[in-house]
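Case study B.
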Amino acid sequence: DTEVTQTPKHLVMGMTNKKSLKCEQHMGHRAMYWYKQKAKKPPELMFVYSYEKLSINESVPSRFSPECPNSSLLNLHLHALQPEDSALYLCASSQAKDTQYFGPGTRLTVL
Amino acid sequence: GNSVTQMEGPVTLSEEAFLTINCTYTATGYPSLFWYVQYPGEGLQLLLKATKADDKGSNKGFEATYRKETTSFHLEKGSVQVSDSAVYFCALRGSTDKLIFGTGTRLQVFP
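Model:
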């Protein structure tokens, strides 16, 4: 089983809202990732968690706040977003430095 | 630094035609190479991978061979179907957790 699940599938939020994206995997992977993908572009890495610790932050604005409560879960907390943050947010997981498996994504629209 | 270059799209083919999508890379050391596919409105799915020189990855009729001498990992399929219409991303992973993506190639297959 190589399934990564993400909720919600779609999210519309205002610039003053606080919301969270959730990601879950049960493959025993110890690395989890958040990517942002704009239309017709490849995914851009945002954060990497390795063994539940933040190992890479690609200079992402503080209005995006990641959290890894345990080895199976990854959250992305959103606050005071801008319309240009509208995108597809993808979660992925892997065994250390091995193949990354992606979830279906959350389509975020910021009004 | 590491980089991936893909041929520009869209690639437009008739059903049962032969497909080649070119991918070349620049990397230090011995990267792993991947092809991911993204169907409309979905996340990325791993299509195939190769982890060392001369390895051939294959899946669902698609193939790609890791050519170190030409630093290439071209994707091929002998007979495409309408259902293969999607965006294809070539990617490499070096010694870190980061995946480096190409820009993506859109494939459109018509009946």
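Chain B has a mean pLDDT of 95. The remaining cases will be described in the next quarterly update.
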